Amino acid sequence: MENYYGKTMFDINKLHILEKKYCKDIHHAYKLFFTKGDLSSIKEDYRKNQIEQEQNKNKYEYMSKKEYYDRSIEKLKSIIKQSLAQNENVKNKSYSGNVDARLIYKAEKINDYKIFWKEKRRDEIKFLVDIVIDSSASLLEKQSKLSVQAYIISKALEDLKIENSIKTFNSFMDYTVIKILKDYDDMKSENCFDYFCSGGNRDGLAIDVIGSMSNNMSDYKKMMIIFTDAKPFDVQVLHAIGTKVKKPYQGDIAIDDTANVIRKLRQKNTKVCGIFSGQEEDIGIIRYIYGSDFLHINSVEQLSTKVGRFISDYISNFYE
To answer: Which InterPro entries does the entry link to (predicted)?
Structure first.
């Protein structure tokens, strides 16, 4: 795997712990591989050159229309910025503070004990955005445009000092590969251009694992933006002699699995938005998986406006 995707991030013991936790039920006997895409571990020149060629295509797409894309970044920033007024006090529901008699019934009826109001400065509310990109072969034709779209979002957030990460996922053999192009504290939005497509996509497993990677950041308001064509698909082509072919991850089984993971993330208070880059006939699938929280993007102009409004509306909820 290292010779194909880059140096591993975790040792075998850590991977076994993660696989025991996440690779079960429909994902039983599958494996995980985490990398930052460090090409130094790739020994084959052909593979290394292949990756570099794809990355150069992404960079060329951006540089060939740099002014156009940079305007989109500024537009996105301006929309989000409207909801980020600083140094004002806001009131948030809390477990302590000034009691609101109107909320007491919630504690009795639905066990919601946030019946107090506590004043908080706006700049004390911290937001975290995971930008997640399906990097399976089905999106190869859209690879460069998707890398630029992810860059536009990440760069706008970075300039506004909103922590964000860029993660991609795909499947290869028995592995779900999760590549971390940018971590929360990095200022490296340009790493989006290292995105490249290959293999299948076991969406449910990948998104479940990625969603857990910020579990220790409970003081943040979290959002996950997922670039997807709404076609989870991972079918085993080759298998070891003497072993059974594993059940295909496709169709209703894969769609239901992905939808369940999205619902689970929302139950943990992560706002999830699907950015749909698929075909019109698959709108029903994206709606089934993501509900109303998806954006059908056909142009960069739409990206800036629609994503900007989505993020802005989410942020504004905490400032009412």
So the answer is: NorD/CobT, vWFA_dom_sf
